[in-house]
Amino acid sequence: MTRALVYFAAFTMMGALFAGILLLAFLLVGVRSTPVGVGGGSQSAEASTAASDAGTSAGPSTGPEASATPRPPAPPDPGQPGFVAGTLAKPRIVDIQVTDLLLFDPTVATVQQGETITFQLTNVGKAVHEFKVGPMKDVFDDLPGTPEVADINPGTTKTLTYTFSGTGPYAYACHAPGHYENGMIGFVNIIPTTKWLGTPAKPRMIVMRMDDHLEFVPSEVSVTPGETILFVLPNVGSALTHEFQIGPADRVALDQADGQIVVEIDKIGPYHVEYMTYTFGSVGPYAFACHEPGHYEAGMKGIIDLAS
Q1: What is the pTM of this model?
Q2: What is the mean pLDDT of residues 275-288?
Q3: pLDDT class of 307 with cuts at 50, 70, 90
Q4: How far apart are CA 50 and CA 54, in angstroms?
Q5: pLDDT score for 11
Q6: Does the CA dihedral 18-22-27-33 come out positive or negative?
Q7: Sequence-distant (≥ 6) Cβ neighbours of residue 58 within 8 angstroms
């Protein structure tokens, strides 16, 4: 009888201990399964606010600043349906933004020879800029007397009207301290009224756009044997850096730039524009390409058609 009582007491104590363990486990599971923030609300609300703030906080500018209001549609360029050439009495408006990247947007304006253009210059950033336009050499040399607008302050718009009577090359630039050196330049692509050949003194401009799709636009251009061409090279992409190499096709394919027969400009960053002058011989074939890693292999190349 005594032994039975002892067994019963031991069994009772073990049962109580097991029940206690089950209760403790249940309480722990209940605590861990309760969602964070339930019962207070403020913690989840603060997390949401922090995420919203992180998404809208200002950081370093990585692309052209957006205008406070969307740009209205621009008038058609030469060659586009509905194009009307600007005149002295009624100039055509060309909108250009100046940005805190120390760049123009756009970096190329297309103009018909003889047109009168009113450049409408809007400062969408915080730095003060200027705008000078005219013959490329005069503009890049900051020649006194070249038409310009100074003190384009943040949030303001100024205008400058210019008649492009010749074939160029024409350009524009900002010579505020350090801006030109950063690449704050642009080009006016003149569509001539009659066909003409580029010479070393007055090269013909061809615009070769590059983008994030690893392509040149256009991918084929025609030049006359012996002609001198000013290649204008805007990178209109937002992510990739490119280069432009030109020369005999076999040597361009092998990336054999030597600075004389095969010449190149490398490290053309997003939104930037570069330029080079090249005089073609009488015998081809010639080609151009980008040899940044993987770009040529993806098809970033083109051909020069020597047409007499």
Answers
A1: 0.76
A2: 96
A3: confident
A4: 6
A5: 46
A6: positive
A7: none
* Residue entry with tokens 């047109």: 115
Nearest to 275 by CA among 194, 173, 127, 164: 173
52's tokens: 């919203």
How far apart are the C-alpha atoms of 296 and 243, rounded to whole Å? 10
- Residue-range domains of the chain with CATH: 64-194 (2.60.40.420), 197-308 (2.60.40.420)
Alpha-carbon span 29 to 237, nearest angstrom: 54
Alpha carbon distance 206, 179 (integer Å): 25
Q: Which amino acid is at 170?
A: Y
Q: How far apart are CA 296 and CA 287, in angstroms?
A: 12
CB 130 within 8 A of CB 143: no
| Torsion sign across C-alpha atoms 10, 15, 18, 24 | negative
* Helical residues (DSSP H) of the chain, grouped into ranges: 2-32, 42-56, 136-140, 249-253
Tens digits of residue pLDDT in 83-100? 898 999 999 999 999 999
The residue behind tokens 């060659």 is 79
Helix and strand numbers, DSSP H then E, in the chain: 4, 19
